[in-house]
Amino acid sequence: MPESAELYHKKMSDVSALIGKLSQTSQFMVNLNLAPSKDKQNSGVYAHLTSSGLFDKKESLESYNLLCSDVTLPGSSFDMSEESGSRQGVIERFATRRIYTDFDLTFYVDKDYNSLRLLEEWMNYIDPIYSGTGGEYQGSSGGQTGFSERNNFYRMKYPNEYKRNISVVKFERNFLTNPNVSNSSFRSQPLVKYTFIDAFPMNIVALPFSYESSAITKVTASFNYSRYIVEKTGFDKQTTTPSGTPTTNKANPDQPVEGQTSPQSITDSVSEIREMIIRSQNRIREQGGTPATAEIAGPPSPMN
């Protein structure tokens, strides 16, 4: 039966609403969930990283999440079995188990090398080195100093002590209804959250250095896990402080938002700059000169 050509002919106005709502790859947030649980049952790796000087500041946990620049979400497949001969000339295939591939996280390396040491010390905790004279390496701000003897050995930790549930939340921009107004309400927005159960770093990818053109140093680690779940959620109703700063972090409701620049503070800064230019122009006019024109745009929309 011939098909109608109208099924394949679409006007731009018909598809513009769909094309204008495509997701962007640069809007996401990773949460390593390294903080111990409330019952302190899994505080071992956190205590080790703290002893290594990696959580010496209150905002350190959040900073490592923000330093994650790239995420490669894993694919999944089924292990298949075949049944041949039950029906003549037919090979039947059916799934037997789910296969989860590893996923990668890439971090910017800060000038103190803390993001690099975070991965190294996490793996050091999984199989800590033992010295015949110094005992077990339990983390140090100076690293594994004093553990260079040839007869050192390793003992693996129990999995429950070093595994964490790592989450990746995918969202889009334009959180605020009006980012230039204090106490602006939040738009309702769908979120997709991947939670990797019992994840831990299994491999740190080789980190090359070169005398050629410089670039930002990055380190990539591959993580293994038991399985992952995918949740589609959204922002619930959220109050704001008088400065316009959210009281909770809806990408990760368990952690408060600290140090976030409010839209009102951006507006105040632009207003101060505009007033300084006006005062400078008035002084030039008083001296008989002609002031150069200057234009200050409105405050930029904050990246949410």
At a glance:
21% of the residues lie in helices and 27% in strands. The protein is an alpha+beta fold.
Secondary structure: elements and pairs:
Blueprint: H1 12-19, E1 28-31, H2 44-51, H3 60-66, E2 68-72, E3 76-87, E4 90-100, E5 103-108, H4 114-126, E6 129-131, E7 135-136, E8 153-154, H5 159-162, E9 164-170, E10 190-204, E11 218-224, E12 227-234, H6 263-286
Q: What report would you give on this structure?
A:
It is a single chain. The chain has 6 helices and 12 strands. It is of the alpha+beta class. The strands form 3 sheets. Strands 1, 2, 5, 9, 10, 11 and 12 form a 7-stranded antiparallel sheet that branches. It is flat, with a radius of gyration of 27 Å. It has helices spanning 12-19, 44-51, 60-66, 114-126, 159-162, 263-286; strands spanning 28-31, 68-72, 76-87, 90-100, 103-108, 129-131, 135-136, 153-154, 164-170, 190-204, 218-224, 227-234. The model is unreliable at 239-271 and 292-304 (pLDDT under 50). It folds into 2 domains: 24-82 and 93-258, no CATH class; 261-295.
